[in-house]
User: What shape does this take?
Amino acid sequence: MTLYRANPKDGVAWITGGGSGLGRALARDFAKHGYAVAVTSLPDEPVDTLLVETAQMSGHVKSFPCDVTDEEGMARTVAAIEKEMGPIILAVFNAGNYIATPGERLVVRDFHRSFAVNYFGIVNGLVPAVEQMRGRGRGHVVLVGSVTAYSGWPTTAAYGGTKAAINILAESLKYDFDKMNIRIQVMNPGFVDTPLTEKNSLPMPGLMPVHRASRRMARGIRKGGFEVTFPYHVSWPLKLLGILPRPICRLVIRLTTSWRARPLFIEPKASGEKDPSPNRKPAKQ
Assistant: This one.
C-alpha cells in the first residue's frame, strides 16, 4: 500500500508557529497551491497581514491563535479547526524558540522553556491531530527539527537537545504511523534567516532566505521521504560530522567556531538572585 501523502483536495493544512518566519512563509506557499490553511500562533501575534496577502490565492488562510504549551488549548484548537474548516489532513509542527545556553551561564528555566515549546509544543498538538487522522485512516504529519540535532554545538544544549528529541520522536512513531496510513516526516533545515537565527551568535554557513527555505520544505512535503534536510552543502557535512568519533567531531566544531579563543563571560549575580535571567524572552513561536 502506498503511504498517504497530503493533497489540498482532501482537507486542511494546519501550521503551528505560522505567524512569523518559516511558518508564515509556508502558509503563503500552501495557500498558493490551493490549501485551506489553519494557522496557529501566539494570541498576541497578529496574522491579519497574512490573511490579506493570501486573500486572492487559490487557497485561503484562517487564524486559530493558541500557545502551543497549552495542552488543553491545543486540543480545543484541533477541534475548532475540524469543525470550522474541515478535516486536518496535514499538520506541520513548526513552532519553536531558541534560547542560548552557554555553559558558564546555565539557567534551569531556559531548559524548561525550550522543551515546553519545541518538544511538548509538538506533542500537545500531535496527540489530538493524530487521533482524528487515525479515525479517518489517513494523514500526514511534519515535525520541524534542525541540523543542530546531529551533534552538540556550543550554546545549543537546550535547543539542540529539543531537536534531537524531535528526530527520535519521529523515528519512533514511524513504525506505528505507517500501519495507520499516517505519513510522518521530520524536516531538518540548516540556518534560515528568521527571528530565531537573529539570536544566534555562532557562525551560520549557508544562511537561507526564508522564502527559499519555505519552498524547499513545501517541495519536501510534496515529494520527499522520511527526513528532509537542506541546503545539502550545509546539512550533509553536518550529518557526516555527527557520525564521526566524538573527539574528532568536537575538534572540528571547536576549530569551526573558534570556541577555545572565546573568553568565559560570567555576569555578576545580584545578591540573593536565584534565576540569573528571569525576564529573558525567547524568540517567538
In short: Residues 12-261 form a domain with the Rossmann fold fold (CATH 3.40.50.720). The beta strands are 12-16, 36-40, 60-63, 88-93, 139-144, 182-189, 227-230.
